[in-house]
Amino acid sequence: MGIPVVDFSKVDGKERANTLALIDRHCQEWGFFQLINHGISEELLDRVKRVATECYKLEREAGFKNSKPVQLLNELVRKKSDEIVENVDWEDVFLLSDENDEEWPSKTPGFKETMKEYRTELKKLGHKVMEIMDENLGLSKGYIKNAFDGGEENTAFFGTKNFLFVELAAFHAFAANPSRYEYVMFDFDLDV
């Protein structure tokens, strides 16, 4: 069984009632769903992926490769150790907000402009999803949004995640003996 998918373009059409019921069911049964046809352009999504990947390579990759979790995993793989690795997220994360504007990556051309445009589109989509959930729960419009941000517009955070294994052998080591690695998250997608 795959991740539940919702065609968000149907929210404003003849199939609104069915689409809202589908969202409600996925929230109750799964706790999440994937949106397709959500209104964020493919061109913008491609630019986001491009600048985030470039930013990681230019500004973040070396630090991630030299991080303690990655060094630990690589050492265990080289030693063929039976030691258990616990509670480690193998990811590089940084937050992008107006409050930390000076901390935004600066070496990647177009990064800041692209991510700000993407954030604007995500906020619009997020507000629309929250309004759908308000409606499904019989709440007044804006109730969930207000619960999250208290009426303030810029309280939500926004960031990027990059997942990487320095040595592909590390993944193969995990696959061969997953019991050695407790609470390890493996994900090769770029989430922004």
From TrEMBL:
Residues in Non-haem dioxygenase N-terminal domain copies: 3-105
Keyword line: Iron, Metal-binding
Coiled coil: none
Cross-referenced InterPro entries: DIOX_N (IPR026992), IPNS-like_sf (IPR027443), Plant_2OG-oxidoreductases (IPR050295)
Source domain of life: Eukaryota
Keyword Ribosomal protein part of the UniProt annotation: no
Source organism of this protein record: Sesamum radiatum (Black benniseed)
SUPFAM superfamilies noted in UniProt: Clavaminate synthase-like
Gene Ontology terms, MF aspect: 2-oxoglutarate-dependent dioxygenase activity; metal ion binding
The name this protein goes by in its record: 1-aminocyclopropane-1-carboxylate oxidase 5
